[in-house]
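Anyone up for a design puzzle?
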């Protein structure tokens, strides 16, 4: 309760100044952006680049103040604050928007994308963004930006090395608030336990969960490779998600056009910069985790296919047709990616000598 009182006190202080012109000789704007992930997370680099570009393109007239590391609350709390007009922007995994809106849930279908190029094509599709924004309008949000969190979800465990589908049986995995992540874990015979990201390392340390399912960059930035928290990472690439930056739709619509143009141009440039930055960065993350003793490994194609088929059958059959995962939206995504070429996820897994 004390933690929540601190959060809401911070929000109350910020409410009066959010997105307002600052006093001075020329009109200025300061926007507060709450980022639940650490500044050292791969997404922090993209968000900081966005703030840098806004300052540059506006000659200092527009400032983006970023509160990294959940300073203003969890993903759910800060998205709610944006929805209600108390914060200008919030960034977190779109998995944690699920309790507010299911607009992004279709992207969380397991094994939906076979490559990074497919995922980026879907995320950047104007047709798909229009459909998602139509749903977000119901909760007064707008999809402003997307930054990769560092590839698809992998499977990290403390003590059990997963080598077959049966090895999942009875394990407990930390999960986000996305029903599709939990359903994927349950499809393997494991149990999903919802834990907000800032509390996840402690949950692993105390044995409340046996592991978690996040991208390599998230394992690294949260230091799961230290202190024997995570000793094995299965390269499964089973589910994609990203950090989405949402803005309050009403506030966005009242901004002057030149301000909106600077914000939009800056974030698109930052996204492109982040795509180029990410590959080498994650490759180095993986190398450092390997050097720390984490075993990062693949499984035989036949076992991978068994896990993939089982997961898709159980999860897709349950969720396609539910809110946020309409057949029409899924068909649109499949149409947008069907001719996309390219393999892999933009990074390499170094061979251990």
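Challenge accepted. My sequence:
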């Amino acid at each position: 309760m004390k933690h929540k009182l601190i959060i809401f006190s911070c929000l109350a202080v910020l409410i009066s100044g959010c997105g307002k012109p600052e006093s001075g000789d020329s009109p200025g704007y300061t926007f507060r952006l709450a980022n639940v992930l650490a500044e050292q997370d791969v997404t922090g680099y993209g968000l900081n680049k966005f703030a840098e570009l806004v300052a540059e393109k506006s000659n200092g007239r527009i400032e983006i103040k970023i509160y990294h590391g959940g300073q203003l609350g969890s993903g759910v709390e800060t998205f709610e604050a944006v929805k209600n007009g108390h914060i200008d922007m919030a960034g977190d995994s779109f998995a944690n928007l699920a309790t507010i809106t299911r607009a992004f849930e279709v992207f969380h279908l397991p094994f939906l994308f076979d490559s990074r190029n497919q995922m980026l094509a879907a995320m950047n599709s104007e047709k798909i963004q229009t459909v998602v924004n139509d749903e977000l309008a119901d909760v007064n949000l707008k999809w402003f930006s997307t930054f990769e969190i560092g590839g698809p979800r992998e499977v990290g465990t403390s003590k059990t090395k997963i080598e077959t589908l049966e090895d999942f049986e009875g394990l407990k995995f930390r999960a986000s608030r996305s029903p599709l992540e939990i359903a994927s874990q349950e499809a393997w015979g494991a149990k999903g336990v919802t834990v907000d990201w800032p509390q996840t390392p402690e949950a692993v340390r105390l044995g409340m969960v046996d592991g978690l399912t996040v991208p390599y960059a998230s394992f690294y930035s949260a230091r799961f490779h230290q202190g024997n928290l995570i000793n094995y990472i299965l390269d499964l690439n089973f589910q994609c998600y990203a950090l989405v930056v949402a803005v309050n739709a009403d506030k966005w619509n009242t901004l002057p056009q030149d301000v909106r143009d600077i914000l939009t141009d800056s974030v698109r440039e930052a996204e492109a910069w982040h795509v180029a930055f990410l590959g080498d960065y994650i490759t180095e993350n993986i190398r450092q985790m390997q050097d720390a003793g984490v075993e990062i490994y693949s499984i035989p194609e036949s076992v991978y296919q068994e896990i993939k088929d089982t997961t898709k059958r159980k999860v897709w059959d349950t969720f396609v047709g539910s809110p946020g995962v309409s057949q029409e939206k899924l068909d649109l995504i499949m149409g947008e990616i069907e001719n996309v070429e390219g393999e892999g996820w933009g990074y390499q897994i170094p061979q251990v000598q």
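A detail worth pointing out: Confidence is low (pLDDT under 50) at residues 1-17.
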